[in-house]
Amino acid sequence: MNLLVVGASGFLGAEVCRQAVAAGQSVVGTYHSAAVAVPGVAARRLDVTDRAAVRALLAEVRPDAVISTPYRYDDWTVTADGAAHVAYASAEVGARLVHLSSDALHGGRPEPYGDDEVPTPIFPYGAAKAAAETVVRAVDPGAVLVRTSLIVGEGSKQIQLCRDALAGRMSLFTDEVRCPIDVTDLAAAVLELAASDYAGPLNVAGPDAVSRAELGLLVARHLGLDPGALKTTTAIAAGVRRPAEVRLDSSRAAGLLRTRLRGVTELLA
């Protein structure tokens, strides 16, 4: 397969590249500022907000499949408009599109969210991810939209946040619940989906729902650090407006994929 990974210098994008190269695929990976550091990947600089540049690159590379991972938490043009540009260009060249979405597009509730539930965003990043999904589905109904959660693994931002809280540099929220997934599991699932004909949204997250504070305790146990040093607070007390409880029901993905989606309690045992 001739694969294009948009956002190959990111945490997930780099792992997708590593696995694809190991599987013998031809991989082109894009970056914006930080260079792609994966051996065997043809690196190309790309600004996804530049529609003409995105179209030109896709027309040149002619990929069989595109993995679209770029986002910027506080930038609508990257997260929403960039996704639109990639979707449009992918459709132009007839490439299979796997778009990475997020649980951030849900508003939060105690009950798990199914794959097909409509977005209910309550903050700007969630709204940008919801807008991205809308345009991707409109441009390419055959695309798969991977809704995922906190991505963990060696070198992940989420694990570093836990380390910082255990060192007293910040606090973790006790009232913000997510379903973490290991980066290697997510990358393998994404590559499986690129070779499939699944269309539409699909939850791809771990089976364990934990608060950020509970994740910190798991990291402490895993690393042999003092859990008593963990600093915690609530999102409400910190004035952070994000969805509180977002549990993704990934049972459809678990039945569809060969990749086993491991829970965070297993990962950090």
Give a written overview of the molecule:
With 269 residues, the chain is an alpha/beta fold. 39% of the residues lie in helices and 18% in strands. It has helices at residues 11-22, 51-61, 76-93, 124-139, 157-166, 183-194, 212-223, 235-238, 251-256, 264-267, and strands at residues 2-6, 26-31, 41-45, 65-68, 96-102, 144-148, 151-152, 172-173, 177-178, 181-182, 200-203, 210-211, 232-233. The strands form 4 sheets. It has a 7-stranded parallel β-sheet with strand order 3-2-1-4-5-6-11, with helices on both faces. Strands 7-10 form a two-stranded parallel sheet. The longest helix has 18 residues, at 76-93. The chain is globular, with a radius of gyration of 18 Å. It starts with a strand and ends with a helix. The mean pLDDT is 95.
Distance between the termini: 36 Å
Adjacency order of strands in the biggest sheet: 3-2-1-4-5-6-11
Q: How many H/I helices?
A: 10
Count all strands and give the number: 13
Q: What's the gist of this structure?
A:
The chain has 269 residues and is of the alpha/beta class. The chain has helices spanning 11-22, 51-61, 76-93, 124-139, 157-166, 183-194, 212-223, 235-238, 251-256, 264-267; strands at 2-6, 26-31, 41-45, 65-68, 96-102, 144-148, 151-152, 172-173, 177-178, 181-182, 200-203, 210-211, 232-233.
